[in-house]
Design brief:
Elements (H helix, E strand, L loop, with lengths): L2 E5 L6 H8 L6 E5 L2 H15 L6 E5 H18 L4 E2 L21 E2 L3 H7 L3 H11 L2 E5 L6 H11 L4 E6 L22 H11 L2 E3 L5 E2 L4 H11 L4 E2 L7 E3 L3 H9 L4 E4 L10 E3 L12 E5 L1 H8 L8 H11 L6 E5 L10 E2 L5 E2 L2
Parallel strand pairs: 1-7, 1-8, 2-3, 2-6, 4-5, 6-7, 9-10, 11-15, 12-13, 12-14, 14-15
Antiparallel strand pairs: 16-17
């Protein structure tokens, strides 16, 4: 049995790598947290065969916890009516109130712990062994809280295991619960060691080259963020820092170029997304990253490494969406577009 975790980089083909491992007669279960990854996996399998083989099951992580793990063993006793997506932060709730709300819904951040407390982990592992030979997880960097601890139980099965993820694309957690794994993503080396202690082989070379990003974009990311990303390509594209107000206006008005903001992209009335929300997307050619004031200051001073990890990671996600040219502009220069401005005729005008 092969038990591995691959630390990949943006655009290296994480989902493609998983789908290539699959065979039509292979009994495999694939888990992922993000909706983008889930759709990418389904699309990859359909592209490979034109259908999804009955031997391959694809679950969102919480669908797996609720349908595959909770229901067969605990639903009769606890009659849960779904999942409460608001994390329960109460540390001193009595007994089952720590895990189930007054409407009989399971708190999402404690389902994995609930399975442990009710001692059904061995039953879950046996059920996995009955139906599958392989476990795949795409986007493992997103697992946090008790969910990260739950990974240890998946590894401790008689199934082959492959986890794939990008430490530096960690922009949110599956769940959080107080200090449980609160510093999980604080240090890259310590993070790798946690997987080694699970009994996994850590692979940092197989998916180190990006097919999405050009050498130019990869160099920009590596030099500014100290992320070890290489390109599988040899073409040259542009990575431009734009501060000229007319050029910024031209980029803003270009509806074919996505504008990526740290947050609240909708306020700018243009073709846009937030940095973290575009993770897993590979549909953009030229990309314009709109940089907030604090990050812009760090970029100009070459001190991006000093940014808060979450902001650094989201910036990395945004920059690595570019298949071709990458433009960076200061958010301050878009202030005039925050709201439609009244024109001389009294009608609202965008420009």
């Amino acid at each position: 049995m092969d038990k591995r975790v691959i630390f990949a980089v943006a655009g290296s083909g994480k989902t493609t790598y998983i789908t290539r491992q699959l065979t039509e007669d292979q009994r495999a279960i694939i888990l992922t947290y993000s909706i983008n990854n889930l759709e990418n996996i389904k699309t990859g399998i359909l592209k490979k065969w034109g259908f999804i083989p009955q031997t391959i099951k694809i679950y969102s992580y919480f669908e797996f916890l609720y349908s595959f793990c909770y229901k067969p063993f605990l639903s009769y006793s606890y009659r849960a009516r779904g999942i409460n997506w608001e994390s329960n932060k109460e540390r001193f709730a009595e007994n089952d109130a720590r895990y189930i709300d007054t409407y009989k819904r399971l708190y999402s951040n404690r389902i994995a712990k609930f399975l442990e407390v009710k001692t059904v982990i061995d039953d879950v592992k046996s059920r996995l062994s009955k139906y599958f030979d392989f476990i795949y997880i795409d986007g493992v960097q997103d697992f946090g809280g008790y969910d990260f601890n739950f990974l240890k139980h998946l590894v401790d099965t008689n199934l082959s295991v492959l986890f794939v993820g990008d430490f530096f694309q960690h922009t949110y957690d599956t769940s959080r619960d107080g200090n449980v794994n609160g510093k999980l993503h604080a240090d890259y080396s310590e993070y790798k060691q946690k997987f080694e202690k699970m009994g996994l082989t850590v692979d940092t070379t197989t998916l180190v080259k990006s097919h999405r990003c050009s050498p130019t974009v990869c160099s920009f990311i590596a030099n500014n963020l100290s992320i070890n990303i290489e390109s599988a390509r040899d073409d040259v594209t542009a990575t431009l820092i734009i501060e000229d107000i007319d050029q910024v206006a031209s980029l803003y008005k270009n509806a074919s170029i996505i504008k990526l903001f740290l947050e609240q992209h909708y306020k700018y009335h243009c073709y846009s997304r937030n940095w973290g929300d575009c993770k897993g997307e590979n549909k953009y050619q030229d990309v314009c990253v709109v940089v907030n004031a604090k990050t812009w200051k760090a970029l100009k001073a070459k001190k991006m490494k000093e940014l808060a990890p979450l902001v650094r990671n989201k910036f990395y996600v945004a920059c690595s969406r570019a298949n071709k040219d990458l433009y960076l502009i200061p958010e301050d220069l878009l202030n005039n577009y925050l709201n439609p401005q009244p024109s001389k005729s009294g009608q609202l005008s965008m420009f």
